[in-house]
Specification:
alpha+beta, two-stranded antiparallel ribbon
Length: 659
């Protein structure tokens, strides 16, 4: 594997190493699947094991297909299975489907009916067929993909009364509003984001310029900024592959992946860091392909500074990915496109800023996570109700991951085997090394990885590379099936069917708002009636009162302690608590806010707060008949002061003294 000579010294034998990796690759995948199932059974997590079937089975099937690829000569050429419709006809069809989807949204305000997703599927199919038409038009395809992404994002953020998503949107709206009201960055006493203010400055500025609320500003402006990454990725992939079909296909798959769709409606600080990471990669690689290198290098430094100032902990994670990318380049040995001096500069910029300027953030947020009691033993997460209460309709939502893994492993295997003079193999090896961040695996059950160090956030950061290897795999699969499959098997039909399933499942299950899935979906938004009840609180409940409610509502009422220097902003704050136990409602000394309609529809998340970093396990209180009786019994000792079809507000008979 390694060679040693007087002239060259210690040198990596790339040929032998790549042969070994390509040989062990299928065996390692099979071993990983078996190990994961044993882990889940040993830990007693049968629900996770059941979900694992949707990734384990396609992984094994993909490995078997890889063995056939190794025995056959699969040449990489443009796919010549042209659709019967011309590019012009497909463009007209796209326009018809797009207008129809907008009409559906306008007629179904506050919901996304099933036929909306049928039109979305039609849009993606028209784009997909254009990629393999006789006259490929990349600018047109990219523009159409951009429009679909905007359509899907606005169908959530501008369609519902108040979408909150990950609930991090709520405090970011608040911090942006404080920035807009004060005309300066927030004080350090308000939040550690005082050291990372660019996101809130952007939202505040657009709010003032457009004369709209910070909430509308966040949703309206961030969507096109997020969707523009599709264009940067196309040029990045095309630089590397010099293949327009693979590059366009990868961008389409990226835009419709469930991870990308979910973060498209949750463009918060870490999502903005991801956007700039894509721009940074484009600039770093463009230095190797364009003549005007000085301007690109200057822009790279500006983007590096932006990354430092937009989010607190994304940069170390992105640096780790760059390290893996550098290692992949070294192992493949087909050229070094990542500038090592720039990589060092990037680290110097953010570490200097952290320890010389944002040192309070390091003391408050980072140092506590390194305490020994959090690292002394492995802690397994309990898993949410959505994992413990599986049903067939929920498991169908994993089909997109199954299809992804099948094609991604094929793409990775082809790139590793054909690595010579092919820099794309670097991205293939990188995808293999980071696949553990993207697919369900035992790391998802370890508390230290999932909660303490937020490994789950890597899913978005590696999603472009996963879309690339998936696009490569689909391309190879189609080439192979067209050449070697029996005449009775129509390879184009199989590919289109798998692509359609991927699109439909990803678009439907990425956001929890589709009640037609057979069960009450977990709505990640507040309705107008619920907002009216919340407005009643702001109007009539005195400041510093105690409010007890469910997890999502508590995030709405959550406002950090306002420093005395910011009192002129006239910001109201409450002592905010989650309902820890419905049997203790009569003991609470504050206002109890219940989203009654949501409780009856799909249930509410309750759970007490903790002062440590270990997340409290929110328990899911479903609207079952026995729970309805229990809640009604405990509310009998309270006085109802507000009631609507969706929200009820209570106070105890014993008074409203704070606990």
């Amino acid at each position: 594997m390694f060679g040693l000579s007087k002239e060259a010294g210690f040198k990596l034998d790339n040929t032998r190493l790549m042969r070994l990796i390509s040989f062990l690759f299928p065996l390692a995948i099979i071993f990983a699947v078996i190990f994961t199932f044993l882990w889940m059974f040993a830990a007693g997590k049968l629900a996770y094991a059941l979900r694992g079937l949707f990734t384990g089975i396609p992984a094994i099937l993909s490995c078997l297909f890889i063995l056939f690829i190794y025995k056959k000569d699969v040449s990489l050429h443009d796919i010549d299975v042209y659709p019967p419709l011309s590019t012009k006809s497909l463009t007209y069809l796209f326009g018809i489907f797009y207008i129809s989807s907008l009409v559906v949204l306008l007629l179904s305000e506050g919901s996304r009916p099933p036929y909306y997703f049928i039109f979305i599927l039609g849009l993606y199919l028209s784009v997909f067929l254009q990629i393999f038409s006789k006259k490929v038009n990349p600018p047109l395809i990219l523009a159409e993909t951009f429009l679909i992404a905007i359509n899907l994002i606005y169908s959530v953020t501008l369609n519902y009364d108040f979408y909150f998503g990950t609930t991090d949107i709520l405090p970011h709206i608040f911090l942006s509003e404080v920035t807009a009201m004060s005309g300066r960055t927030i004080p350090t006493s308000l939040s550690d984001y005082a050291y990372f203010p660019l996101y809130h400055v952007l939202i505040a500025e657009t709010s003032e310029l457009l004369n709209i609320s910070t909430k509308n500003s966040l949703f309206l402006v961030t969507a096109p900024i997020y969707a523009i990454t599709i264009i940067f990725l196309y040029y990045l992939f095309n630089y590397i592959t010099n293949n327009r079909q693979i590059s366009l296909l990868s961008c389409v798959l990226f835009s419709v992946s469930s991870v990308v769709l979910y973060y498209g409606v949750n463009v918060i600080t870490r999502t903005m860091a991801f956007i700039m990471f894509i721009v940074l990669l484009y600039l770093v690689y463009s230095v190797n392909f364009k003549k005007d290198k000085l301007s690109l290098k200057a822009l790279s430094v500006i983007v590096a500074v932006f990354l430092t100032l937009v989010h607190n902990v994304s940069l170390p994670q992105l640096v780790l990915l760059l390290i893996i990318l550098l290692i992949s380049e070294y192992i493949i040995g087909n050229g070094s496109y990542i500038s090592k001096p720039f990589f060092i500069l990037l680290n110097v910029i953010f570490t200097s800023y952290w320890f010389f300027i944002a040192y309070i953030f390091v003391q408050r947020s980072l140092a506590p996570r390194l305490q020994s009691q959090f690292l002394d033993s492995i802690v397994l997460t309990a898993g949410g109700a959505e994992v413990l209460q599986e049903s067939l309709i929920n498991l169908v939502g994993l089909l997109d991951k199954s299809i992804f893994l099948f094609f991604a492993l094929i793409g990775i295997s082809f790139l590793l085997k054909n690595y010579r003079n092919n820099y794309a193999s670097v991205l293939g090896l990188f995808a293999l090394l980071t696949l553990i961040f993207y697919v369900p695996n035992p790391l998802n059950t370890i508390w230290q990885f999932k909660v303490l160090f937020r490994v789950d956030r890597f899913m978005l950061f590696v999603s472009p590379f996963m879309a690339f290897v998936m696009g490569y795999g689909l391309y190879i699969f189609w080439n192979y099936m067209s050449k070697y499959s029996p005449r009775k098997v129509n390879s184009a039909t199989i590919v289109v069917l798998l692509f359609s399933t991927f699109v439909l499942v990803s678009s439907i299950y990425s956001i929890g708002d589709s009640d037609f899935l057979g069960q009450g979906a977990r709505h990640e938004y507040f309705t107008s009636e619920e907002l009216s009840g919340f407005e009643h609180i702001f109007k009539y409940v005195p400041i510093d009162s105690s409010i007890y409610t469910d997890y999502y509502s508590s995030r709405f009422f959550y406002l950090p302690l306002i420093p005395a220097t910011s009192a002129e902003m006239n910001i109201s704050s409450y002592d905010n608590y989650r309902i820890g136990d419905v049997n203790k409602l009569s003991q609470y000394r504050g206002y109890i806010v219940l989203r009654t309609k949501e409780f009856l529809r799909s249930g509410l998340y309750f759970g007490s707060e903790e002062s440590t970093l270990r997340d409290t396990a929110n328990y899911f209180y479903q609207g079952l008949p026995e729970n309805q009786l229990e809640l009604q019994s405990n509310l009998a000792g309270l006085s109802k002061i507000y009631s609507s079809s969706s929200t009820d507000i209570f106070i105890p008979h014993k008074g409203l003294n704070n606990p």
